[in-house]
Amino acid sequence: MNPLVTAFRHEPTGTWSYVVQDPNSRAAAVIDPVMDFEFRAGRTFTEAADEIIGFVRDRDLDVQWILETHAHADHLSAAPYIQEHFPAPIGIGRGITAVQERFKKIFNLPEAFPADGSQFDRLFDEGDTFSIGGLVGKVIATPGHTSDSNSFLIGDAVFVGDSLFAPRFGTARCDFPGGDAGLLFDSIQKLYVLPEETRVFLCHDYPPEGKEPISETSIGDQKRENVHVRADTIRQEFVKMREKRDSELPLPDLIIPSVQVNINTGKPMPPEENGTSYIKIPVNIFPGDPARQLKASS
Questions:
Q1: Residue 132 belongs to what domain range?
Q2: CB count in 10 Å sphere of residue 172
């Protein structure tokens, strides 16, 4: 049995979120929902998430899971906000504990912040399964971009997070703390053994000018056409390419707020004594050439 999949585009961050439905029941899951964030004002809003909530309510769906493919570095997660409306468990890969530990140190988070994944309702391991009505989902651990990256195989559809982009754009960067280009190559090989007709649902697409963004490809298309890693690509060549490319990339615009919030499921850190939550900006910690960063953003 194969799922019904509806994609939702968050244009400011180039992110795709999904509602996955059991075709024979009301059961559904939400994957990678986005919380809007206006950095200059430090203010969140819920336009993108409300679109998903409206879709679910209009069809009287029963949300059974809220799934994160990884702790995103380019947008804030709306998982807790979705959970307020539909009390489903939030699931992420067990590697989130390593991500939490690293960024707890980088941001000097309070000792009371646990780096054990307990903020999430379910920590997934390789091969774990979950149900969406009559659908059975399987977890494929796909680290490399991040330590907690998972892909979710549900029927003939696989949700790959940032491990694969559209074939014309390639693959995700591996230069964040805990990233590893060799691990990403190995993870992609686990995806490439799936049937070629398997539908691949992307977390991002950054189309060239004049082209429409796409949310879906296939394993066959990726193996034949991905500009970074085709079926015949050699691991050593991929690692060399990926590391060189990563050295030239600017950091994502929202990495600092996103990571702090997303390692806490999408919730801001607890309010301080004045009742306000804060996002820290560490100075001269993240790598990068300021001149290149400015040029890339201009």
A1: 4-297
A2: 28
**Secondary structure of 123-162 in the HEC alphabet?**
EECCCCEEEECCEEEEEEECCCCCCCCEEEEECCEEECCC
Token duo for residue 142: 């796909």
Q: How many domains does the chain have?
A: 1
CA distance 21 to 56: 10
Can you tell me which residue has the tokens 């995103």?
72
Q: What's phi and psi for 4, nearest 5 deg? A: -90, 130
pLDDT of residue 208: 85
Secondary structure (3-state) at 273:
coil
Q: Do residues 97 and 117 make contact, with C-beta atoms less than 8 angstroms apart?
A: yes
Long-range CB pairs of 3-11, under 8 A, 24+ apart, other chains included? 3/132, 3/135, 3/154, 3/155, 3/157, 5/157, 5/199, 5/201, 5/216, 6/55, 7/201, 7/215, 7/216, 8/48, 8/51, 8/52, 8/55, 9/213, 9/215, 10/34, 10/36, 10/48, 10/75
Q: How large is the C-alpha radius of gyration of the chain?
A: 18
Residue 251: CATH number of its domain:
3.60.15.10
Nearest to 33 by CA among 55, 18, 14: 18
pLDDT digits (tens, 9 = 90+) for 30-68: 999 999 999 999 999 999 999 999 999 999 999 999 999
pTM listed for this prediction: 0.94
User: What phi and psi values does residue 79 have, to the nearest 5 degrees?
Assistant: -55, -45
